[in-house]
Amino acid sequence: MYEILFSAINIAVFPAWLLLLFAPGWRWTGPVVHTALVPLALGAVYLGFLTLGIVFGQSDPEAGMSSLAAVQALFSHPVGLLTGWVHFLAFDLFVGAWISRDARRRGVARALVVPSLILAFLFGPTGLLLYLIGRKLTGKAGWSLDESGQVVA
């Protein structure tokens, strides 16, 4: 059952990543990827797994976030692992969508955006790292993450 849930969750986010990679300007990309639709769905799944783990005891009794051993115990149960996985998927997609929007707004070349998105999909923060360094080196933006491009103090 856990393996089926894992596969279903992965399949559910894959179309959003495909839209970011291959159709960033398509009229359906915005409503699917740049609205709260996917984050709300992933948030609900996350809350469901979190509830199973905390309220219904579907977790290791030593699980927690107070030490490395407690975090290890958290991920030792399939529900804890799925909870963490949904967390990664939600935030990685959020970052990928931000990269896509920021790149379109600033005119960043797709040659930088595509590898950044692939890395964000596969290895989360490395995609953001590549994108931020790349847009800085190409003169498309500074280090600010502000949507307007203004430096925030």
From TrEMBL:
The chain crosses the membrane at residues 6-24, 36-59, 79-99, 111-133. InterPro entries: ABA4-like. Coiled coil: none annotated. The keyword Membrane applies. It comes from the Bacteria. Pfam families: ABA4-like. Keywords: Membrane, Transmembrane, Transmembrane helix. PANTHER family: PROTEIN ABA DEFICIENT 4, CHLOROPLASTIC (PTHR34543:SF1). This is DUF4281 domain-containing protein. The lineage of its organism: Bacteria, Pseudomonadati, Pseudomonadota, Alphaproteobacteria, Maricaulales.
